[in-house]
Amino acid sequence: MDAMVRVGILGATGAVGEALLRVLLGHPEATLTFLGSDHAAGARVDAALPVLRGQTDAVLRKPDLAGFAAEADVVFLAKKGADSMEWAPKLLAAGLKAIDCGGEFRFRDPAVYERFYGTKHTCPELLHEAVFGLPELYRERIAAARLVATPGCYPASAILPLAPLLAEGLVAPAGIVVDSYSGISGAGKTYSDKARNLFVNCDENCRAYSPLTHRHAPEIEQELSLAAGTPATALFVPHLLPVDRGILTAIFADLARPAATADVVAAWRRRYAAEPFIRLFDKLDDVELANVHRTNYCDFAAIVDPRTSKVVISSALDNVIKGACGMAVQCMNLMFGIPETTGLLHRCV
Questions:
Q1: Mind listing the domains of the chain with CATH numbers?
Q2: Is 123 a known active-site residue?
Q3: Given 153, 298, 325, 331, the catalytic residue
Q4: pLDDT of 46-97, one tens digit each?
Q5: Strands (DSSP E) along the chain, which ranges?
Q6: For the chain, is the Cβ count within 10 Å smaller at the N or the C terminus?
Protein backbone atom coordinates (compact mmCIF):
# COMPACT_ATOMS: atom_id res chain seq x y z
CA MET A 1 0.00 0.00 0.00
CA ASP A 2 1.67 3.21 -1.17
CA ALA A 3 -0.78 5.80 0.19
CA MET A 4 -2.17 6.13 3.68
CA VAL A 5 -5.59 4.57 4.15
CA ARG A 6 -8.13 7.30 4.88
CA VAL A 7 -10.35 6.18 7.74
CA GLY A 8 -13.79 7.33 8.81
CA ILE A 9 -15.57 6.22 11.97
CA LEU A 10 -19.31 6.31 12.55
CA GLY A 11 -19.89 6.50 16.29
CA ALA A 12 -16.44 7.75 17.22
CA THR A 13 -17.18 8.43 20.90
CA GLY A 14 -18.78 5.10 21.84
CA ALA A 15 -16.86 2.31 23.55
CA VAL A 16 -15.72 0.67 20.31
CA GLY A 17 -15.28 4.02 18.55
CA GLU A 18 -13.00 5.29 21.28
CA ALA A 19 -10.96 2.09 21.22
CA LEU A 20 -10.65 2.33 17.43
CA LEU A 21 -9.40 5.88 17.77
CA ARG A 22 -6.78 4.89 20.30
CA VAL A 23 -5.48 2.04 18.12
CA LEU A 24 -5.61 3.93 14.83
CA LEU A 25 -3.86 7.01 16.19
CA GLY A 26 -0.79 4.79 16.44
CA HIS A 27 -1.25 3.10 13.05
CA PRO A 28 1.59 4.07 10.68
CA GLU A 29 -0.38 3.50 7.47
CA ALA A 30 -3.78 4.95 8.35
CA THR A 31 -4.99 8.50 8.83
CA LEU A 32 -8.22 9.49 10.57
CA THR A 33 -10.13 11.81 8.23
CA PHE A 34 -13.80 11.83 9.27
CA LEU A 35 -14.86 11.18 12.85
CA GLY A 36 -18.62 11.04 12.98
CA SER A 37 -20.71 11.58 16.11
CA ASP A 38 -24.38 12.53 16.29
CA HIS A 39 -24.39 13.81 19.86
CA ALA A 40 -20.94 15.44 20.01
CA ALA A 41 -20.65 16.99 16.54
CA GLY A 42 -18.65 20.22 16.64
CA ALA A 43 -16.64 19.27 19.71
CA ARG A 44 -12.98 18.43 19.64
CA VAL A 45 -12.26 14.74 20.07
CA ASP A 46 -10.07 15.40 23.09
CA ALA A 47 -12.89 17.36 24.74
CA ALA A 48 -15.39 14.53 24.25
CA LEU A 49 -12.73 11.94 25.11
CA PRO A 50 -10.25 13.57 27.50
CA VAL A 51 -8.11 10.42 27.56
CA LEU A 52 -6.95 11.46 24.07
CA ARG A 53 -5.81 14.92 25.13
CA GLY A 54 -2.47 15.64 23.53
CA GLN A 55 -2.91 12.94 20.89
CA THR A 56 -5.29 14.63 18.45
CA ASP A 57 -6.87 18.00 17.76
CA ALA A 58 -9.49 16.56 15.38
CA VAL A 59 -13.06 17.80 15.54
CA LEU A 60 -16.06 15.49 15.65
CA ARG A 61 -18.53 15.98 12.80
CA LYS A 62 -22.11 15.11 12.08
CA PRO A 63 -22.12 11.96 9.93
CA ASP A 64 -22.42 12.97 6.28
CA LEU A 65 -22.32 10.67 3.25
CA ALA A 66 -20.72 13.23 0.98
CA GLY A 67 -18.03 13.84 3.59
CA PHE A 68 -17.29 10.16 4.01
CA ALA A 69 -17.23 9.63 0.23
CA ALA A 70 -14.85 12.54 -0.35
CA GLU A 71 -12.51 11.94 2.56
CA ALA A 72 -12.44 8.23 3.43
CA ASP A 73 -11.53 4.92 1.85
CA VAL A 74 -13.07 2.82 4.62
CA VAL A 75 -15.61 3.55 7.34
CA PHE A 76 -15.81 1.67 10.62
CA LEU A 77 -19.41 1.30 11.76
CA ALA A 78 -19.00 1.54 15.53
CA LYS A 79 -22.70 1.84 16.25
CA LYS A 80 -25.36 -0.81 16.63
CA GLY A 81 -28.68 -1.60 15.06
CA ALA A 82 -30.54 0.71 12.73
CA ASP A 83 -27.61 3.08 12.17
CA SER A 84 -25.36 0.38 10.74
CA MET A 85 -28.12 -0.98 8.51
CA GLU A 86 -28.87 2.54 7.28
CA TRP A 87 -25.27 3.47 6.55
CA ALA A 88 -23.75 0.27 5.14
CA PRO A 89 -25.68 0.26 1.83
CA LYS A 90 -25.05 3.98 1.31
CA LEU A 91 -21.33 3.68 1.95
CA LEU A 92 -20.96 0.72 -0.41
CA ALA A 93 -22.96 2.52 -3.11
CA ALA A 94 -20.59 5.47 -2.75
CA GLY A 95 -17.62 3.18 -3.48
CA LEU A 96 -16.34 2.90 0.08
CA LYS A 97 -15.47 -0.16 2.10
CA ALA A 98 -17.17 -0.73 5.43
CA ILE A 99 -16.26 -2.67 8.55
CA ASP A 100 -19.21 -3.23 10.87
CA CYS A 101 -18.29 -3.75 14.52
CA GLY A 102 -21.87 -4.54 15.58
CA GLY A 103 -24.05 -7.59 14.97
CA GLU A 104 -25.98 -6.47 11.92
CA PHE A 105 -24.05 -8.34 9.22
CA ARG A 106 -22.71 -11.40 11.05
CA PHE A 107 -25.55 -13.76 10.19
CA ARG A 108 -26.19 -15.55 6.93
CA ASP A 109 -29.92 -15.81 7.69
CA PRO A 110 -31.82 -12.56 8.39
CA ALA A 111 -34.46 -14.52 10.32
CA VAL A 112 -31.84 -15.49 12.92
CA TYR A 113 -30.83 -11.85 13.31
CA GLU A 114 -34.45 -10.75 13.66
CA ARG A 115 -35.21 -13.43 16.25
CA PHE A 116 -32.28 -12.63 18.54
CA TYR A 117 -32.03 -8.86 17.99
CA GLY A 118 -35.78 -8.22 18.03
CA THR A 119 -35.82 -5.94 15.01
CA LYS A 120 -36.26 -6.26 11.25
CA HIS A 121 -33.16 -6.44 9.10
CA THR A 122 -33.53 -3.61 6.60
CA CYS A 123 -30.84 -4.65 4.11
CA PRO A 124 -30.80 -8.48 4.07
CA GLU A 125 -29.48 -8.41 0.51
CA LEU A 126 -26.05 -7.54 1.92
CA LEU A 127 -25.81 -10.59 4.18
CA HIS A 128 -24.64 -12.87 1.37
CA GLU A 129 -21.82 -10.44 0.61
CA ALA A 130 -20.68 -9.56 4.12
CA VAL A 131 -17.63 -11.53 5.22
CA PHE A 132 -17.34 -12.75 8.81
CA GLY A 133 -14.31 -10.89 10.10
CA LEU A 134 -12.18 -13.66 11.59
CA PRO A 135 -8.90 -13.41 9.63
CA GLU A 136 -7.70 -16.77 10.95
CA LEU A 137 -10.61 -18.44 9.14
CA TYR A 138 -11.54 -16.09 6.30
CA ARG A 139 -8.36 -14.22 5.40
CA GLU A 140 -8.65 -14.40 1.60
CA ARG A 141 -12.33 -13.45 1.58
CA ILE A 142 -11.69 -10.49 3.91
CA ALA A 143 -8.90 -9.22 1.66
CA ALA A 144 -11.31 -9.09 -1.29
CA ALA A 145 -14.35 -7.79 0.61
CA ARG A 146 -16.25 -4.52 0.49
CA LEU A 147 -18.19 -5.27 3.68
CA VAL A 148 -16.76 -7.07 6.70
CA ALA A 149 -18.65 -7.91 9.89
CA THR A 150 -16.35 -8.46 12.83
CA PRO A 151 -17.40 -11.25 15.21
CA GLY A 152 -18.65 -10.76 18.71
CA CYS A 153 -16.10 -11.00 21.49
CA TYR A 154 -17.54 -14.14 23.07
CA PRO A 155 -17.88 -15.97 19.73
CA ALA A 156 -14.27 -15.22 18.78
CA SER A 157 -13.06 -16.83 22.01
CA ALA A 158 -15.04 -20.01 21.24
CA ILE A 159 -14.82 -20.27 17.45
CA LEU A 160 -11.06 -19.87 17.17
CA PRO A 161 -10.14 -22.92 19.30
CA LEU A 162 -13.08 -25.08 18.17
CA ALA A 163 -13.08 -24.57 14.39
CA PRO A 164 -9.97 -26.66 13.57
CA LEU A 165 -11.11 -29.48 15.87
CA LEU A 166 -14.53 -29.63 14.21
CA ALA A 167 -13.03 -29.38 10.72
CA GLU A 168 -10.79 -32.39 11.43
CA GLY A 169 -13.56 -34.41 13.09
CA LEU A 170 -11.80 -34.52 16.45
CA VAL A 171 -14.77 -33.28 18.47
CA ALA A 172 -18.47 -33.95 18.12
CA PRO A 173 -20.52 -31.00 16.80
CA ALA A 174 -23.43 -31.61 19.17
CA GLY A 175 -23.65 -30.70 22.83
CA ILE A 176 -20.69 -28.32 23.07
CA VAL A 177 -20.69 -26.24 26.25
CA VAL A 178 -19.28 -22.70 26.12
CA ASP A 179 -18.91 -21.19 29.59
CA SER A 180 -17.62 -17.60 29.32
CA TYR A 181 -16.62 -14.81 31.71
CA SER A 182 -16.31 -11.19 30.58
CA GLY A 183 -15.13 -7.92 32.02
CA ILE A 184 -17.71 -5.16 32.45
CA SER A 185 -16.46 -3.21 29.41
CA GLY A 186 -18.15 -5.87 27.27
CA ALA A 187 -21.46 -4.17 28.02
CA GLY A 188 -20.36 -0.93 26.32
CA LYS A 189 -20.86 2.61 27.60
CA THR A 190 -24.62 2.29 27.96
CA TYR A 191 -26.36 -0.58 29.67
CA SER A 192 -29.80 -2.06 29.36
CA ASP A 193 -29.88 -2.57 33.13
CA LYS A 194 -27.65 0.14 34.59
CA ALA A 195 -28.10 -0.64 38.25
CA ARG A 196 -26.86 -4.21 37.94
CA ASN A 197 -23.70 -3.04 36.17
CA LEU A 198 -22.72 -0.35 38.63
CA PHE A 199 -19.36 -0.92 40.31
CA VAL A 200 -20.97 -1.41 43.72
CA ASN A 201 -23.05 -4.29 42.35
CA CYS A 202 -20.27 -5.90 40.32
CA ASP A 203 -17.32 -5.62 42.69
CA GLU A 204 -16.65 -8.84 44.62
CA ASN A 205 -19.41 -10.47 42.58
CA CYS A 206 -19.96 -12.75 39.60
CA ARG A 207 -23.20 -13.71 37.90
CA ALA A 208 -24.57 -15.33 34.77
CA TYR A 209 -26.63 -13.21 32.40
CA SER A 210 -28.80 -14.01 29.38
CA PRO A 211 -28.20 -17.77 29.76
CA LEU A 212 -29.24 -19.67 26.61
CA THR A 213 -30.71 -16.49 25.05
CA HIS A 214 -27.64 -14.31 24.49
CA ARG A 215 -27.31 -12.81 21.00
CA HIS A 216 -23.90 -14.40 20.53
CA ALA A 217 -25.24 -17.96 20.87
CA PRO A 218 -26.50 -18.29 17.27
CA GLU A 219 -23.31 -16.63 16.01
CA ILE A 220 -21.25 -19.34 17.71
CA GLU A 221 -23.47 -22.10 16.31
CA GLN A 222 -23.40 -20.63 12.80
CA GLU A 223 -19.62 -20.64 12.56
CA LEU A 224 -19.14 -23.97 14.32
CA SER A 225 -21.63 -25.55 11.89
CA LEU A 226 -19.70 -24.17 8.93
CA ALA A 227 -16.44 -25.52 10.34
CA ALA A 228 -17.95 -28.95 11.00
CA GLY A 229 -19.83 -29.14 7.72
CA THR A 230 -22.91 -30.25 9.66
CA PRO A 231 -25.24 -28.56 12.16
CA ALA A 232 -23.51 -27.89 15.48
CA THR A 233 -25.15 -27.10 18.79
CA ALA A 234 -23.59 -25.14 21.63
CA LEU A 235 -24.93 -24.32 25.06
CA PHE A 236 -23.63 -20.82 25.79
CA VAL A 237 -23.74 -19.17 29.22
CA PRO A 238 -21.95 -15.82 29.72
CA HIS A 239 -20.98 -14.39 33.10
CA LEU A 240 -19.96 -10.94 34.26
CA LEU A 241 -16.63 -10.58 36.06
CA PRO A 242 -15.67 -7.61 38.27
CA VAL A 243 -12.77 -6.63 35.98
CA ASP A 244 -12.62 -3.99 33.28
CA ARG A 245 -11.34 -6.06 30.35
CA GLY A 246 -11.02 -9.56 29.03
CA ILE A 247 -12.90 -12.76 28.28
CA LEU A 248 -12.02 -16.16 29.69
CA THR A 249 -13.92 -19.03 28.10
CA ALA A 250 -14.05 -22.63 29.22
CA ILE A 251 -15.20 -25.07 26.54
CA PHE A 252 -16.31 -28.68 27.05
CA ALA A 253 -16.78 -30.93 24.01
CA ASP A 254 -17.16 -34.66 23.41
CA LEU A 255 -14.45 -36.37 21.41
CA ALA A 256 -15.74 -37.72 18.09
CA ARG A 257 -13.02 -40.41 18.04
CA PRO A 258 -10.28 -41.60 20.39
CA ALA A 259 -7.72 -38.82 20.83
CA ALA A 260 -5.18 -37.46 23.27
CA THR A 261 -4.29 -33.91 24.23
CA ALA A 262 -1.40 -34.06 21.78
CA ASP A 263 -3.83 -34.70 18.92
CA VAL A 264 -5.79 -31.57 19.78
CA VAL A 265 -2.64 -29.47 19.93
CA ALA A 266 -1.44 -30.95 16.64
CA ALA A 267 -4.68 -29.92 14.94
CA TRP A 268 -4.23 -26.39 16.23
CA ARG A 269 -0.65 -26.27 15.04
CA ARG A 270 -1.66 -27.41 11.56
CA ARG A 271 -4.21 -24.62 11.34
CA TYR A 272 -2.57 -21.81 13.29
CA ALA A 273 1.20 -22.33 13.06
CA ALA A 274 1.66 -19.15 11.01
CA GLU A 275 -0.99 -17.07 12.76
CA PRO A 276 0.54 -13.98 14.40
CA PHE A 277 -2.21 -13.48 17.00
CA ILE A 278 -2.87 -17.08 18.10
CA ARG A 279 -0.78 -18.38 21.01
CA LEU A 280 -0.95 -21.97 22.22
CA PHE A 281 -0.14 -22.90 25.81
CA ASP A 282 0.70 -26.25 27.36
CA LYS A 283 -1.60 -26.06 30.39
CA LEU A 284 -5.07 -24.69 31.04
CA ASP A 285 -3.85 -22.68 34.00
CA ASP A 286 -1.34 -20.86 31.79
CA VAL A 287 -4.24 -19.18 29.95
CA GLU A 288 -4.94 -15.97 31.86
CA LEU A 289 -6.68 -12.65 31.26
CA ALA A 290 -3.52 -10.84 32.36
CA ASN A 291 -1.60 -12.29 29.42
CA VAL A 292 -3.97 -10.90 26.79
CA HIS A 293 -4.90 -7.64 28.50
CA ARG A 294 -4.85 -4.78 25.96
CA THR A 295 -3.45 -6.98 23.18
CA ASN A 296 -4.74 -8.52 19.96
CA TYR A 297 -3.82 -12.07 20.99
CA CYS A 298 -6.08 -15.03 21.60
CA ASP A 299 -4.53 -17.66 23.86
CA PHE A 300 -5.74 -21.19 24.37
CA ALA A 301 -4.82 -24.59 25.78
CA ALA A 302 -6.53 -27.96 26.05
CA ILE A 303 -6.58 -31.19 28.01
CA VAL A 304 -8.32 -34.42 27.06
CA ASP A 305 -10.03 -36.37 29.83
CA PRO A 306 -9.93 -40.05 28.81
CA ARG A 307 -12.36 -40.99 31.59
CA THR A 308 -15.20 -38.92 30.12
CA SER A 309 -13.95 -38.78 26.50
CA LYS A 310 -14.14 -35.02 26.57
CA VAL A 311 -11.76 -32.23 25.70
CA VAL A 312 -11.59 -29.19 27.99
CA ILE A 313 -10.34 -25.93 26.45
CA SER A 314 -9.43 -22.65 28.09
CA SER A 315 -9.41 -19.58 25.86
CA ALA A 316 -8.67 -15.92 26.60
CA LEU A 317 -8.74 -12.64 24.71
CA ASP A 318 -9.23 -8.94 25.35
CA ASN A 319 -12.87 -8.19 24.52
CA VAL A 320 -12.10 -4.63 23.38
CA ILE A 321 -9.05 -5.48 21.20
CA LYS A 322 -9.15 -9.00 19.71
CA GLY A 323 -12.86 -9.11 20.49
CA ALA A 324 -13.65 -5.80 18.76
CA CYS A 325 -11.45 -2.96 17.48
CA GLY A 326 -8.18 -4.90 17.14
CA MET A 327 -9.90 -7.53 15.03
CA ALA A 328 -11.48 -4.74 12.96
CA VAL A 329 -8.11 -3.09 12.31
CA GLN A 330 -6.64 -6.49 11.47
CA CYS A 331 -9.39 -6.82 8.84
CA MET A 332 -8.72 -3.30 7.54
CA ASN A 333 -5.06 -4.17 7.05
CA LEU A 334 -6.02 -7.18 4.95
CA MET A 335 -8.55 -5.20 2.90
CA PHE A 336 -5.90 -2.64 1.90
CA GLY A 337 -2.89 -4.90 1.42
CA ILE A 338 -1.16 -3.71 4.59
CA PRO A 339 0.88 -6.23 6.60
CA GLU A 340 -1.70 -7.79 8.88
CA THR A 341 0.03 -7.06 12.18
CA THR A 342 0.54 -3.35 11.46
CA GLY A 343 -0.48 -1.19 14.40
CA LEU A 344 -1.37 -4.22 16.52
CA LEU A 345 1.82 -5.75 17.87
CA HIS A 346 2.25 -3.20 20.65
CA ARG A 347 0.16 -3.16 23.81
CA CYS A 348 -2.97 -1.36 22.70
CA VAL A 349 -5.58 0.88 24.37
A1: 5-151+323-335 (3.40.50.720), 154-318 (3.30.360.10)
A2: no
A3: 153
A4: 999 999 999 999 999 999 999 999 999 999 999 877 899 999 999 999 999 9
A5: 5-10, 30-36, 74-77, 97-100, 131-132, 147-149, 176-182, 207-208, 234-240, 247-254, 278-280, 298-305, 310-317
A6: N
